[in-house]
Design a protein that fits this description.
With 477 residues, the chain is of the alpha/beta class. The protein contains 16 helices and 23 strands. The strands form six sheets. Strands 1, 2, 3, 4, 5, 6 and 18 form a seven-stranded mixed sheet that branches. It has a five-stranded antiparallel sheet with strand order 19-20-23-22-21, with helices on both faces.
């Protein structure tokens, strides 16, 4: 028998980025709203994901400056890295942002916040530790967690995931990273710059979803910094011993190897948090990748929506926030809003950064064939990059022969900022002519995008036909 019964307009399960956005928006629009969180407000992004990882990367970049800024005439002493102090910096950043996601703030907005574990007890009802909640619409925003691959011996060996890494205050002598995706690469570079030896083990190739050419350039930079990257390896076993961990693997040539490290980080993907929800009782279909949703983010139970990582789509914080807007429009305004990922960007915050939107060159060729123009502009041709000695990088933009932009990738300083112009252009259907014609302030890194866009017109502008036209017009004075 429930101790309490609530009847509300919207119940949100999960107080991560997406859930918080739905709850705040619904309450401010006048809907009675309940928000349930079983652990920490702010979810993975604030506590164990985006925020702490970028804070750690900032410390690592500071430690790296002494090597790179001598070229500017400024010499630094060798950095003295105190990982305990770095850890305090990471958690001070989390604490600075946490009030925006706090229970107090959301209750002030009119949201009823309940701490506990929610489970479905019917198509439109959930229960949280004795409280029964009936809602006209329910939003599942429970996110995901680090996936632990079925490697023999791994369950017997101490290891980090992103959920435990940021509590560490001991600098690893040799960090072995299993997984060469964005999390693995970011944390590998961060620890190398802080002073650890680092080995990255990847079953296929690092950063498989990004442009291979730019990934290759990034990989070379990481190797130059002293990171060992082993691609195409198969891990056969992990063992504890000698004050650290031993990874047994079969390399790309089929030979067996042993790699010894002091610490192990598992960054091998994510798993949706669907356990303990009792989704079957609400008639909600789900699978290994998460809850199955349609383009409006509705589940098989039309009263229930799923957003963010648990919905099985792109696993980014900004996607969860985008999903929240789609749900608000569907649930409160009855608009048939649908997700549209055609201008979805993502960024890996290595140094240099790697940013991407829409199609890679290979994907564009598979879809459009030869009706493509690949636009390039290197960072070393940009004056601001030269003044700041940040000349390693390249922009690649893909257009059709008519100038329609179908994709862009950027490797280089501030790539996460520069990609946003291309996101806007693709999202609004702008022709490359619009970017080529904009006035960019000088000297800025943003000129890289303008110069790449303008290169679309270079072959025609300086063709023999154009020169003949100019000579012809000169006859008229």
């Amino acid at each position: 028998m429930s101790d309490t019964f609530l009847d509300v307009d919207i119940a949100v399960i999960g107080a991560g980025s997406g859930g918080l956005s739905v709850a705040a928006g619904a309450a401010q629009l006048g809907a009675s709203t309940v928000l349930i969180e079983q652990h920490l407000m702010g979810g993975d992004c604030l506590n164990t994901g985006c925020v702490p990882s970028k804070a750690l990367l900032a410390s690592a970049k500071a430690a790296y400056r002494w090597r790179s800024e001598a070229a500017l005439g400024v010499d630094y002493a060798l950095p003295d890295v105190d990982l305990g102090a770095v850890n305090r910096h990471v958690h001070e950043v989390i604490a600075a942002i946490a009030p925006n996601d706090s229970i107090e703030r959301f209750e002030a907005l009119g949201v009823k916040v309940i701490q506990g574990t929610a489970r479905f007890v019917g198509p439109s009802e959930i229960e949280v530790d004795g409280t029964r909640i009936r809602a006209r619409r329910i939003v599942v925003a429970t996110g995901s967690r680090a996936a632990v691959p079925p490697i023999p011996g791994l369950d017997q060996v101490p290891h980090f995931t992103n959920e435990t890494l940021f509590a560490n205050t001991e600098l690893p002598r040799h960090l072995i990273v299993i997984g060469g995706g964005p999390i693995g690469i970011e944390m590998a570079q961060a620890h190398r710059r802080l002073g650890s030896d680092v080995t990255v083990l990847e079953a296929s190739r690092i950063m498989p979803k990004d442009d291979p050419e730019l990934v290759s350039l990034l990989g070379s930079r990481l190797v130059d910094e002293g990171i060992a990257i082993r691609e195409g390896v198969s891990i056969t076993r992990v063992e504890d011993g000698r004050g650290g961990v031993t990874v047994l693997l079969r390399n790309s040539e089929g030979l067996e190897e042993r790699i010894f490290g002091s610490h192990l980080l598992v960054a091998a993907g994510r798993r949706p948090n669907t356990e303990r929800l009792d989704l079957e009782k609400a008639g909600i279909e789900y699978g290994p990748k998460g809850i199955i949703v349609d383009a409006r983010l509705r589940t098989s139970n039309r009263r229930v929506f799923a957003i963010g990582d648990v919905a099985g789509g792109p696993q980014f914080t900004h996607v969860a926030g985008y999903h929240a807007g789609i749900v608000i429009r569907n649930a409160l305004f009855r608009q048939p809003a649908k997700v549209d990922y055609r201008a979805l960007p993502w960024v890996t915050y290595a140094d240099p950064e790697l940013a991407h939107v829409r199609l890679t060159e290979a994907e564009a060729r598979a879809k459009h064939g030869d009706d493509l123009v690949v636009l390039r502009w290197p960072y070393h041709e940009n004056d601001r990059a030269q003044t700041d000695r940040k000349t390693q990088g390249l922009i690649k933009a893909i257009t059709t022969r008519s100038g329609k932009i179908v994709g862009a990738s950027i490797l280089g300083a501030e790539a996460g900022e520069l990609i946003q112009l291309w996101v806007l252009a693709i999202g609004q259907g702008l022709n490359v002519k619009a970017l080529a014609g904009m006035i960019a302030p000088y000297p800025t890194l943003g000129e890289i995008s303008k110069r790449a866009a303008a290169s679309f017109f270079t072959p025609k502008l300086f063709s023999s036909r154009t020169r003949k036209l100019v000579r012809f017009l000169s006859w008229f004075g």
